[in-house]
UniProtKB/TrEMBL annotation:
PANTHER family: CONSERVED EXPRESSED OXIDOREDUCTASE (EUROFUNG), OXIDOREDUCTASE. It comes from Yoonia sediminilitoris. SUPFAM superfamilies: Glyceraldehyde-3-phosphate dehydrogenase-like, C-terminal domain, NAD(P)-binding Rossmann-fold domains. Residues 5-134 form the Gfo/Idh/MocA-like oxidoreductase N-terminal domain. GO terms for molecular function: nucleotide binding. This is Putative dehydrogenase. It comes from the Bacteria. Residues 142-272 form the GFO/IDH/MocA-like oxidoreductase domain.
């Protein structure tokens, strides 16, 4: 089968997420990296793309040049990944969807709920695949957890507790470093810092595994480093449509915590626990029974977990392969096969609604607010 043609915007040299996309997109030989506008500095972006093997005429200086250069080519890209800072996601994603391209956008999908709803509409009208890179949802043992919940193996879910708390922005003396600063600058990051950056991964994961949506929430935000306009720590309580109680903590000043993303799901007849730093294992405790460690690649896992396991049992699979799983599902979706695990524009706008309602709740002393986007009420 011919490889699909892939291009990328953002993710330039030294960026945090760029390498994970390049590894993920190319891991299975499904995509060929043929075009890019990789850096906010046009010359640096052109030069880096060429060093990565992109032909000179498709190593673009900015996304507008890339759109103009790609849209009328016979061999134009089948998929574009948007991996720029948050404030640019909406206009780039919308422009590429309107020009008939499939898009994978980094989270958060947009800055506002209105923009998110607009992306849902534009994606629907275009008929193109629109995905958001909630890559943690593509780890095999996360898929196993979701399949177990769907199969009723832990009964009705009563409670989900998630946190995504690290300590990598805890140095007040480094708060002005440009790589760190934009995440707490409303012009670049939007209305929320840490919750929009990491908390929405945890909230998406809760919805994804429980197969349910966040209906309402109450939030407490704090900027523990005084120079920050936006929060670097948040506690969010939520309720899902089906009645599940949710608790979520996210922080970037939790010194000693590294990646710090974990989730526990407590059902009527069992509990599950997954931790991103040990992604190959899912911990399962049946009611009244012993705790068991389920391993990626072992026999008897649900089909979706088996499908997305790549190497033999006990061989570690990490974040780039979770991203690769997103690209596998994207390749299938572009070729017309439905993959219900692929996070789409609806997941993107739900996150934006959660971000904005959490900000409103935090400003209102933690008042409970409807967290659904207006289009889904
Ligand atoms: P970064 O600051 O490390 O890198 C951003 C890159 O985009 C740089 O190479 C920069 O030159 C380039 N860039 C900026 N504006 C551009 C423009 N207009 N056109 C072309 N290139 C441009 O940022 P990082 O951490 O890589 O984050 C990028 C996005 O990825 C953010 O939206 C972030 O929230 C998301 N992200 C997602 C993760 C996930 O797990 N899904 C993990 C880390 C980041």
């Amino acid at each position: 089968m011919a490889k699909l043609k892939w291009g990328m915007i953002g993710g330039g040299e030294g960026s945090q997420i760029g390498p994970a996309h390049r590894l993920g997109a190319q891991a299975d030989g499904l995509f060929e990296f043929v075009a890019g506008a990789l850096d906010h500095r046009p010359d640096a972006g052109r030069a880096y793309a060429q060093r990565l093997g992109v032909a000179a005429d498709r190593a673009y200086g900015d996304w507008q040049e890339m759109l103009a250069g790609e849209k009328d080519r016979d061999d134009r890209i089948d998929l574009v990944t948007v991996a720029t800072p948050n404030a640019t996601h909406f206009e780039i994603t919308k422009a590429f969807l309107e020009a008939g391209f499939n898009v994978l956008c980094e989270k958060p999908m947009t800055m506002t709920v209105e923009e998110g709803e607009e992306i849902v509409r534009v994606a629907g009208k275009s008929g193109k695949v629109m995905a958001v890179n909630y890559a943690y949802s593509a780890y095999p043992m996360v898929r196993q957890a979701r399949a177990m919940v769907r199969a009723g193996e832990i009964g009705k879910v009563r409670l989900v507790v998630s946190n995504f708390s690290h300590g990598h922005h805890a140095d007040a003396g480094d708060a002005d470093n440009p790589r760190v600063r934009w995440r707490y600058d409303p012009v670049m990051a939007g209305v929320s810092g840490q919750f929009a950056d990491c908390g929405i991964h945890a909230m998406h994961m809760a919805s994804f595994i429980c197969d349910d949506e966040v209906a309402s929430l109450s939030a407490d935000f704090a900027s523990t480093i005084a120079s920050r306009t936006l929060e670097d720590d948040a506690m969010v309580n939520f309720r899902m449509s089906g009645g599940t109680v949710g608790r979520l903590w996210t922080s970037s000043v939790a010194i000693g915590r590294q990646h710090g993303f974990e989730i526990q799901i407590f059902g009527e007849t069992g509990g599950l626990k997954w931790h991103a730093e040990q992604p190959n294992q899912l911990i399962y405790t049946p009611l009244g029974g012993r705790t068991q460690i389920m391993e990626k690649g072992e026999g008897g896992l649900h089909e979706d977990a088996q499908r997305l396991s790549r190497v033999a049992i006990a061989h570690p699979e990490g974040f780039p392969l979770a991203v690769a799983n997103i690209y596998c599902d994207l390749a299938d979706a572009i070729r017309g096969e439905t993959r219900d695990g692929l996070p789409g524009a609806a997941a993107g706008v739900r996150s934006m609604a959660a971000v904005h309602t959490a900000v409103a709740s935090a400003k209102d002393g933690g008042a409970w607010v409807d967290a659904r986007p207006p289009m889904f009420r």
